[in-house]
Design goal:
Dipeptide-binding Protein, domain 1, 3 domains, eleven-stranded mixed beta sheet, four-stranded antiparallel beta sheet, 15 helices
């Protein structure tokens, strides 16, 4: 249920063989990261990107490179804005017909895969027949057919209309049978999985940066020092302890973005201690989410008490959330002693958050023991349902389809068995909403279900930071968006250099 597994549920990671290749490559170049690198002396169209070799379970190099590879090389028919609305990507436009039971998707002209073959309706239909199954999970049975509609369009037929199904268009498009052949602005070098070259035939124009190379370092702090010395151009992810130093740097720009992952303390509702919904509501009232974000995340996050993003376009205004009310929580919890063990990934941020949660719950008489475990142990505990509670980070935004995948207790994508019958019923109402009005009301009812019968304690959305040398002119990203999503538009500064060291 942590990042790697949630990403797999979303059907958007590279195959296991690619992950192995990444890890092998990192092991081979690890020693290079410890050698002194000469300061960059001339303007270059090569972006040298530093990534830590020894990072946490959430931000390990393999996971980071999978995400980077996806950002650089792979595209979907659409991309989702932070409010969940769809924006064209490989699709030029889409139109609903037959009362919402038919979706006609027109493809952009002139798009090619990295090997030069065209992205045509026949190929996209082949991709979607498999891709939609992994993207929609249990909702795949609502798809009646996927077929070619015209020389430049496809048709997806639904057994019944639902706005929720439109969110499935974010499925990623790779050439069938080819794990690394897609359509994005960069092409992975087959024998060098830590190197990407510009796609000279990219349909929106070739990127100004001709090549992106990964430099591996033993720690984030080491990579950060090399960035400040102007020996690399970018730090993939900035540790919170490095943020202040980089923010004050004259040759480095720091960009924040909000991830679509949410910290949550998920309950195992099979355990007797969590069977009472009143008790679970009281536990939620005992948590000061703003303090948790401030103390555990250094302020780099957004508090939340439900898995639906507050920005989601269909969420009614004024939808309910959990207030912080420790007095009311204590009044409920004083009647029954509450003791449980929370499994936590071996990671500094998770451990810090768990200790703050433990302290807040202790203030209302709850005894929460914290046990740090490896990602493998955590996965096995979830799979076998042998846990009281787990502190994890799950993907929930920007679409409600992702919420459905993770929190429907009967979903095959929900390996931890999270959720309950109340949430399941509300999710099914969202699934079968036929109009936008009904859909909005159903989303509001779903949020209320998470309040009335909470399957866990939702804490907040996490923010991440990237640092880029001012040797590159970087367009300001849209609010909340990852600056790497616009890397094809970055331009090396030919008229100035930042050669001095801090």
């Amino acid at each position: 249920m942590i990042q790697g597994r949630c990403t797999r549920r979303n059907g958007s990671i590279q195959p296991a063989c690619a992950v192995g290749a990444v890890l092998t490559a990192l092991a081979c170049i690890g020693s290079c990261g410890r050698e002194a690198r000469p300061a960059i002396q001339t303007p270059s169209s090569v972006l040298h990107l530093g990534i830590s070799q020894v990072q946490s379970s959430l931000t390990n190099p393999a996971a980071g490179l999978r995400q980077l590879n996806q950002l650089l090389t792979v595209e979907g028919l659409v991309r989702l804005d932070n409010d969940g609305r769809m924006q064209p990507q490989l699709a030029e436009r889409w139109t609903l017909a037959e009362g919402g039971r038919s979706l006609i998707v027109t493809l952009k002209p002139g798009v090619k895969f990295h090997d030069g073959s065209p992205v045509n309706p026949q190929t996209v239909v082949e991709v979607l027949r498999d891709g939609l199954r992994s993207t929609t999970g249990p909702l795949f049975e609502d798809i009646a057919h996927v077929r070619v509609a015209s020389p430049n369009s496809i048709e997806i037929g639904f057994r019944r209309p639902s706005p929720l199904m439109l969110e499935s268009l974010e499925v990623l498009v790779k050439k069938p049978g080819q794990s690394i052949v897609a359509t994005g602005p960069y092409v992975v070098t087959a024998d060098k999985p830590t190197e990407w070259r510009a796609n000279a035939d990219y349909y929106l124009g070739p990127p100004a940066i001709s090549q992106i190379q990964i430099a591996s370092f033993p720690s984030v702090r080491t990579a950060w020092a090399e960035l400040l010395r102007n020996r690399i151009d970018m730090l993939y992810e900035v540790g919170l302890d490095a943020f202040d130093s980089l923010q004050n740097s004259t040759n480095v720009a720091v960009f924040a973005y909000m991830r679509h992952y949410q910290y949550v303390l998920a309950f195992n509702l099979r355990q007797p201690v969590f069977r009472s919904s009143a008790l679970r509501r009281a536990l939620n009232l005992a948590v000061d989410r703003e303090e948790l974000v401030r103390q555990a995340l250094g302020g780099h996050g957004v508090p939340s008490s439900v898995p639906i993003s507050a920005q989601y376009w269909a969420l009614p205004s004024g939808a309910a959330t959990f207030p912080y009310d420790p007095q009311k929580a204590a009044a409920t919890l004083s009647a029954t002693p509450v003791r449980f063990t929370c499994l936590v990934p071996t990671d500094q941020i998770f451990e810090r958050m768990a200790l703050h949660l433990k302290r807040q719950l202790s203030a209302v008489g709850v005894d929460m023991s914290v046990r740090s475990v490896s990602s493998e142990e955590l996965f096995e505990a979830e799979r076998t349902r042998k846990y009281d509670a787990v502190l994890v980070e799950v993907i929930s935004a920007p679409s409600v389809l992702r919420v459905y995948q993770v929190w429907n207790s009967k979903s095959e994508l929900n390996l931890g068995g999270f959720g309950n019958a109340t949430v399941d019923k509300a999710l099914e109402r969202v699934r079968y909403a036929e109009t936008e009005t009904d859909f909005g009301q159903s989303v509001g009812a779903l949020q209320q279900a998470f309040i009335d019968d909470p399957p866990g304690i939702f804490v907040g959305w996490s923010e991440r930071l990237r640092a880029v040398s001012k040797r590159f002119a970087v367009p300001p990203p849209a609010p909340g968006r990852d600056v790497l999503s616009s890397v094809r538009l970055w331009v090396p500064r030919a008229d100035e250099r930042v050669a001095r060291r801090n």
